[in-house]
């Protein structure tokens, strides 16, 4: 399906790598994202930044490198805004909402969600107040560890989860609430399984979902449980709804449902509500939890970096005032560390699958409508022309020769274009404030020699999951 376009007469894309040839690699690629990135890199050196590969018998156009990614996702954003196939999402019945929907449903729900989230403070001072309040709760919870070794997974997940809960449900949970901990465990397990080799294989050979037992069934069960929880909350909201005084995201959605009930092409339904809240809840919790957890592991591995951040915190903020977003412009080293953490961990290496919505010409090719697209964010975040020695964790990647923070167009951990993460501004705020307040109040102590810390992800099919570890939070 892949041919060069003649100057006078464009031709449809075809494959430089035949199904039979690439089929030899498909299982290896499916089970290990790092191996996938390695083969994609090798293929890009032969075929250029845009080429087709086959996962099973399914052709996928690969975008490799910043220029190709920018041209497709930003310059041709509308044409590349489709969501590609994700078979497990279909079986879990979450193909509406925001993350996996397409067409009118996606546009309507995303537009409504962004407007509502902004009305409830996303990107504004009011949401910063919520994050700061939650940061104080996080500090108090970390103090309760009494400086003893602990696994930070759930503590770090509770803080961002409570921020998104305050927007969606109007209330936060106590960190020891059994319902809250159950929700956190289910979200954590979903991400872990989605990143496993088994699910990567099954997403390329979806018939396996139907005929073989496996961990994907836990995903289906956990998604159903979480959607049931959201539906229960929605019914509670409906019983006490005041259309003139919406309290949170669910209230706003219910009000819109009432307004749109005569619309024959109904997008605002209870099913869409439960899936959308699940999307916001999951994306707003687990990705940030993983980023914080991975960030602390890297700071344990590099105590010299941690020391420089804490020196900057002492100089700019001190020990007693809460960090705020205005501080960031006066803390170039800390800002660089936060950016380097997000670059280095490469949280979602291939983004979520894209799909072209119309026949479109790109780089000497015409890509037919409906073709799946794999966006290699790794090739952007690990571009050695922009980030020298990209395999090294180095905050200097975001600092100029004078020690000032240096922006980079290649910083795309949230993807780019029409499908960029809807909560990007909130995520940027959370990772800066939570990490800063932790380093303001605690010394991080590793239970092993920093030289022996392994930062290699234990899974990185869908997302890069850090290895489990323990550390001590020693109060300053």
Automatic annotation (TrEMBL):
Q: Does the keyword Cytoplasm apply?
A: no
Give cofactor(s), names only: heme
GO CC annotations, alphabetized: cytoplasm; endoplasmic reticulum membrane
Residues reported in the UniProt entry to bind heme: 421
Task: Report the record's Gene Ontology biological process terms.
Answer: epoxygenase P450 pathway; xenobiotic catabolic process
UniProt keywords, alphabetically: Endoplasmic reticulum, Heme, Iron, Membrane, Metal-binding, Microsome, Monooxygenase, Oxidoreductase
Sorted alphabetically, which InterPro entries does this protein's record hold?
Answer: Cyt_P450, Cyt_P450_CS, Cyt_P450_E_grp-I, Cyt_P450_sf, Cytochrome_P450_fam2
Q: Where in the cell is it found?
A: Endoplasmic reticulum membrane; Microsome membrane
| A Pfam short name | p450
Q: Which GO terms describe its molecular function?
A: heme binding; iron ion binding; oxidoreductase activity, acting on paired donors, with incorporation or reduction of molecular oxygen, reduced flavin or flavoprotein as one donor, and incorporation of one atom of oxygen
Q: What EC identifiers does the entry list? A: 1.14.14.1
Kind of enzyme, top EC level?
oxidoreductase
Where on the tree of life does the source sit, at the highest rank?
Answer: Eukaryota
Q: Which family does it belong to?
A: Belongs to the cytochrome P450 family.
- PANTHER family, per database record: CYTOCHROME P450 2C9, CYTOCHROME P450 508A4-RELATED
Q: What is this protein called?
A: unspecific monooxygenase
Supply the source organism for this entry.
Bos taurus (Bovine)
The organism's taxonomy opens as: Eukaryota, Metazoa, Chordata, Craniata, Vertebrata
The encoding gene is CYP2C88
């Amino acid at each position: 399906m892949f041919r060069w376009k003649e100057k006078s007469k464009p031709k449809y894309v075809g494959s430089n790598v035949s199904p039979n040839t690439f089929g030899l690699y498909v299982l290896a690629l499916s089970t290990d994202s790092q191996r996938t990135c390695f083969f994609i890199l090798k293929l890009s050196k032969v075929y250029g930044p845009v080429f087709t590969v086959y996962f099973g018998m399914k052709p996928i156009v690969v975008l490799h490198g910043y220029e190709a990614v920018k041209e497709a996702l930003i310059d041709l954003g509308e044409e590349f805004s489709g969501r590609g196939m994700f078979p497990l999402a279909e079986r879990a019945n979450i193909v509406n909402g925001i993350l996996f929907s397409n067409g009118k449903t996606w546009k309507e729900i995303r537009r409504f969600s962004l407007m509502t989230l902004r009305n409830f403070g996303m990107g504004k001072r009011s949401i910063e107040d919520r994050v700061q309040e939650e940061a104080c709760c996080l500090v108090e919870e970390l103090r309760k560890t009494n400086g003893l070794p602990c696994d930070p997974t759930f503590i770090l997940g509770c803080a961002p989860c409570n921020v998104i809960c305050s927007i969606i449900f109007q209330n936060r949970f106590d960190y020891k609430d059994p319902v809250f901990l159950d929700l956190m465990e289910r979200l954590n397990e979903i991400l872990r399984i989605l990143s496993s080799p088994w699910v990567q294989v099954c997403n390329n050979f979806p018939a396996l979902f139907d005929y073989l037992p496996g961990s994907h069934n836990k995903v289906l069960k956990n998604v159903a449980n979480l959607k049931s929880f959201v539906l229960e909350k929605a019914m509670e909201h409906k019983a006490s709804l005041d259309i003139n005084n919406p309290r949170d995201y669910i209230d706003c959605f219910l009000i819109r449902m009432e307004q749109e009930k005569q619309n024959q092409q109904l997008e605002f339904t209870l099913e869409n509500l439960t899936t959308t809240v699940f999307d916001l809840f999951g994306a707003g919790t687990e990705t940030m939890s993983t980023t914080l957890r991975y960030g602390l592991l890297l700071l344990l591995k590099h105590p010299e970096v941690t020391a420089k951040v804490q020196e900057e915190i002492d100089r700019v903020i001190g020990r007693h005032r809460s960090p705020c977003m205005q501080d960031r412009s006066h803390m170039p080293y800390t800002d660089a560390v936060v950016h380097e953490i997000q670059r280095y961990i490469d949280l979602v290496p291939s983004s979520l699958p894209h799909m072209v919505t119309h026949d479109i010409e790109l780089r000497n090719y015409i890509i037919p409508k409906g073709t799946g697209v794999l966006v290699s964010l790794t090739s952007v975040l690990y571009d050695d022309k922009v980030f020298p020695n990209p395999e090294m964790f180095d905050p200097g990647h975001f600092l100029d020769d004078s020690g000032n923070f240096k922006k980079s167009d290649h910083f795309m951990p949230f993807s780019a274009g029409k499908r960029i993460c809807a909560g990007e501004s909130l995520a940027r705020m959370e990772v800066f404030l939570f990490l800063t307040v932790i380093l303001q109040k605690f010394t991080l102590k590793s239970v092993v020699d920093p030289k022996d810390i392994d930062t290699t992800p234990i899974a990185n099919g869908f997302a890069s999951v850090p290895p489990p570890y323990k550390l001590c939070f020693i109060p300053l």
